[in-house]
Design a protein that fits this description.
It is a single chain. The strands form two sheets. Strands 1-2-3 form a three-stranded mixed β-sheet, covered by helices on one side. Strands 4-5 form a two-stranded antiparallel ribbon. The chain is 8% helix and 14% strand. By secondary structure, the protein is mainly beta.
Length: 105
């Protein structure tokens, strides 16, 4: 995630799951500063108040053809926000009819 300054925000960041790991991993860049944690990101940009910082528990993210669907028990389940008019997901499958919906594309 990259954001130059608050006056450039033209969108609403919320209901996301961010994970940054490994050597030098950070969550985002804001005003030319690396932001390492979700709480610091939220304080800096004033958004993402309902977002998570956890492993989404994808079914098989490292397969030759990754399966990025959520495993049972994923923290992303039932923590999203339904958006009017969005009825299918990134790979063309019907979005779950749950309210709230899952976090993800």
């Amino acid at each position: 995630m990259w954001q130059r300054s608050l006056n450039q925000i033209r969108y609403n960041l919320n209901y996301n799951d961010y994970i940054a790991n490994g050597n030098g991993g950070f969550l985002g860049l804001y005003n030319n500063f690396d932001i390492a944690s979700l709480s610091n990101w939220q304080a800096s940009v004033g958004q993402d108040l309902n977002s998570l910082n956890s492993n989404p528990l994808f079914v098989n993210p490292t397969a030759t053809t990754p399966n990025l669907h959520l495993s049972s028990g994923s923290p992303c389940e039932n923590n999203g926000l339904a958006i009017n008019g969005i009825i299918d997901d990134f790979d063309g499958e019907a979005r779950a009819g749950l309210s709230p919906t899952d976090i993800g594309a």
